[in-house]
Amino acid sequence: MSRRVVIIGAGFGGIGAAIELRAHGYTDVTILDAASGIGGTWLANTYPGAACDVPSHLYSYSYAQRRSWSRLCSPQPEILDYLRQVAREHSVDHLVRPDTRVSAVRWDDEAHVWHVETDAGTYTADAVVMATGQLAQPSIPSIPGIDDFAGHAFHSAGWDHAHDLTGRRVAVIGTGASAVQFVPEIAPVVGKLSVFQRTGNWFLPRKNMRYPKPAQALLKVPGVQRLRRWGLKRLYLESLTASIRHPRTVGPVLRLKSQIFMRHQLRDPEVRRKVWPDYTFGCKRVLFSSYWLPALQRDNVEVVTDSIERIEPDGVRTVDGTLHRVDTIIWGTGFKATSFMFPMEVHGRDGASLRDVWADGPHAHLGMTVPGFPNLFVMYGPNTNTSGGSIIVYLESQARYVRTALQEADRRGAAAAEVRPEVEAASDAEVQSKFSGTAWLACDSWYRDATGRIITNWPGYMHEYEKATEAIDPSEYVWLRHP
Ligand code: NAP
Asked: What is an example of a GO molecular function annotated in this UniProt entry (predicted)?
């Protein structure tokens, strides 16, 4: 088929979309990525201990299952290898144009095509798939004095492997999912580690040991792998979502498990007092680690809960006046999740800017389509992040939805699909209403914008999203004619 599709992003979303489209006859696909190759977040995040925190049998494409994962949650190199292999096996690896940064995408009202402007020239496309993700842009807070620091500083998503941490005095700022993985790795190596925590987390146990040989053999028995994936998806992970959706009934069950585990691990009363979370279970991402709390209780590790006042040449000054002298700062401060594809310029029909359309917060029908932006599909867009599921399940659903949109356009001989404004508004209102009464609304988190609206997460279960996105509903769209 002759439709030209440009996919922006060569991570799990973009590669999955390309595979889906190619498998259904859309051969004219180009994948652009600013990075040096395939991988997305798994190319950028190479920090010590980096691994997925969703079991690999689910954190993988349904059509490219592996029985050879080394652990429940695979380490980053294994995931990156997997993604590269799958791209090769499905012959989409050669579609990737690495080191190509997109600056703007503009809809051409006359020709009914998109112009995708990059630092390597302009591509013309009938459809654009924005697979840039929510966790691609590292966030470093603007703390006063940050540029005065005389030591070395880097973000967890840009780990400086050339900087030997042995014996150093290190500050880690932030205690989210990334820090929880790398702190236990570096704590035994550094001289002194100061962990700056703003908010404590809820933890559940995970040792993530290598699968023993019998378990690996069992997974090779026909049917076991499929059953395992089904169980992980429908029982294990959806139960975490249930605990967040129902903080008064289901939530306390998992919270109790977390409390018992944390109480058992937190032998030091001072550290226990400092790290114990003071918000509803599930409001922020629940973290899985059996190594974090013990690491915080090492002799060479200090948990600092006083707010940071400023960064000075010799270290981090907290509001109590203490200067925490360090020679290295590692920012574990997460990502600009709500920036989505920006600062890229996205201009739709009549030159409308997506930035303006989203001035009061991003929203899209099923997280993917926006009125005024024909044949522009966002993957991992607004309200499609998951606290309790596998993002790969969402990305596969989105790839399928995009494919059905193009197929429907072909069937109708249409140039493009544009979601009806009233459909998008109604689905946004429905998504927002589903947050009511859930744990997500019980604290501040990176899921929310300045107004408190949740703009990153899906409020339901994985299977609900899969069902909602099974195929495009033609009545929800205006079908633009070819000029
Ligand atoms: P994060 O969860 O957003 O954590 C950022 C941390 O930095 C939080 O502890 C935050 O404190 C702190 N922080 C932010 N600004 C600060 C400031 N000005 N002063 C002091 N502390 C500050 O980031 P992340 O750990 O990189 O994880 C982001 C997301 O990536 C995760 O939620 C997850 O979805 C994904 N992830 C997944 C994996 C995995 O699969 N294994 C691993 C890593 C990341 P507050 O809590 O107070 O805001």
From this structure: monooxygenase activity
Q: Which atom of ligand 1 is nearest to the CA of 141?
A: 18
CATH class, domain 146-202+248-331, is alpha beta
Residue located nearest, by CA, to atom 10 of ligand 1: 174
Instruction: State how far the Cα of 382 lies from the Cα of 470, in Å rounded to an integer.
Output: 18
Rounded Cα gap, residues 478 and 483, in angstroms: 15
Give the mean pLDDT of 379-400: 96
Query: Which residues, judged by CB distance below 6 Å to any ligand atom, belong to the binding site of ligand 1?
Result: 51-53, 135, 141, 173-179, 181, 196, 198-199, 285, 308, 332-335, 446
Mean pLDDT estimate for the chain: 97
Q: Side chain identity at 85, as an amino acid letter?
A: Q
5-137+336-480 classified as CATH 3.50.50.60:
yes
Q: What is the mean pLDDT of residues 50-69?
A: 95
Q: How far apart are CA 5 and CA 21, in angstroms?
A: 9
Beta strands in 169-264 (DSSP E): 169-173, 192-196, 203-204
Which are the contacts of 301, defined by CB distance < 8 A and separation ≥ 6? 183, 187, 192, 193, 194, 195, 295
204 DSSP β-pair partners: 288
Q: Measure the CA–CA gap between 187 and 459, rounded to whole angstroms.
A: 36
82-126 pLDDT, tens per residue?
A: 999 999 999 999 999 999 999 999 999 999 999 999 999 999 999
Tokens in use for 419? 């979601």
Confidence of residue 234 (pLDDT cuts 50, 70, 90): confident
Whole-number pLDDT of residue 2:
82
Mean pLDDT of 381-391: 95
CA distance linking residue 383 with residue 424, whole number of Å: 13
Find how far residue 145's CA is from the centre of its chain: 30
Q: Which of 146, 333, 336 most suits a substitution to test ligand 1, by most atoms within 8 Å of the C-beta?
A: 333
User: Residue 1's pLDDT is what?
Assistant: 55
Give the span between the Cα atoms of 177 and 288, in whole angstroms: 9
> What are the tokens at 24?
């259904």
Chain region(s) in the chain for CATH 3.50.50.60: 5-137+336-480, 146-202+248-331
Residue pair 309/317 in contact by the 8 Å Cβ criterion: yes
